[in-house]
Amino acid sequence: MESQEKRRRRRLRTIGDLDVAARLLRNVGLVVLDSARSEHTLRREIFKQFTREQVEHAVATVGELARPPENKQAPEALLSRYSSVRQFVPLLLETITPHAADGGRAVLAAWEFLRRIERMATPPMHEAPLRIVTPAWRRLVVRADKSIDRRAYTFCVLQTLLAAFKRRDLYVTPSQRWGDPRAQLLTGEAWQAQRTLVCRTLGRDELPEPELARLKQELDAAYRRTADNLPTNEAVHIERAHGRYELVLSGLDKLDEPPSLIGLKTLVAQRLPRVELPELLLEVQAWTGFASDFTHVNEHGARADDLPISVCAVLLAEVCNVGLEPLVRPEMPALTRARLAWIQQSYIRADTITTANNRLVDVHAALPLTKALGGGELASADGIRFVVPVRSVHAGANPKYFGRGKGVTYINYTSAGSIGFFGFVVRVGKSAGGQASWRVVWIEVLGVTKAGYQRWKLVARSSFKTRVRTWSNK
What we know:
alpha+beta; four-stranded antiparallel β-sheet; extended
């Protein structure tokens, strides 16, 4: 196997021949691209300037010396780094003990073979499992005399091992990211108890055969439709790269903002006043009167003077997570510390917040701009992740998003009319006590009520049970 230095020297020795051949083919290309020349006499004119032997020799030279685009994951490129990787292989073999699902048994067998021969001076490479060797690696793993190259085989196994972990064909325990993907699935009696409910909720058949038949038909129809449209589809094409054919999708062209849109943005920005957040909240209260929906926990008819000011101050403290202290004004009866603490404890509850939010949604839905945006049959779901630096029952560990800390994911649903109608906190991971973590698996529109409100269904699943919730934007 050539070293990287030898390949570089050979490249330098042959670069002159490659340049000569490339310039000759460039001149041939200029003759072909000359629109003044007749296509019927094109070959005759080319061979007037260059002999057939010169062109054939140039084509052969380029084919032999030209290098394909560099692929750092190509087998040859990886083999040049074997000495560096070899330093970590013994520790890797000793530390990682993977387990295999059905699709990863061949990879696990190859890994166990590497572990068995690790300390052998003359390992029996003829016993190496070759099922995992891909065509790109076979020409390097299996020599001309049918013997097995240990370096190439090691790299092939490492590359296949990583791919198997990403496909979850292999897993290790204990591990949060690379653990068994089936560990949180319901099994045995727990699954049988929930099977009918889950399948009915998701609109699926309890038997796998009808579901597989339906998926087979959908896949076949999609494949045939794609194949029929491929010759006329300008957004997709197939090209050969790195020794294999790949499907390439063309990116969407950037749409420049027209001058009218730029002018509209400028006018809107000029007309929007710069106001403080408390002033904005009080103005929305003046439009809608949502503060009247916050009632005392025991005395629904009890009212205090300037109650909307106190409610808006407490809501602002809660939303901005700054506490009540920045909102305290001893000279104003509605903003004293005792008044705000009383409002926070007696008026701010889940049911009052829901009632006030419904009032805001009703007012928003009646706006002409909201009606122009959409009828509400469609919705958009988006998640925002937050790191939680303090201890919280809602926070969980996820190294991919939160590093060594903990955090939560907030899921928000917005209708086509730009109305936020549902949101909840998704806890990440699982607590030490085994508390379940929920994840959304299904959401759909159930329909529109006579009053014009949308009804939705949400299905969330944990490792222990499935929860179904229906709601409307009323």
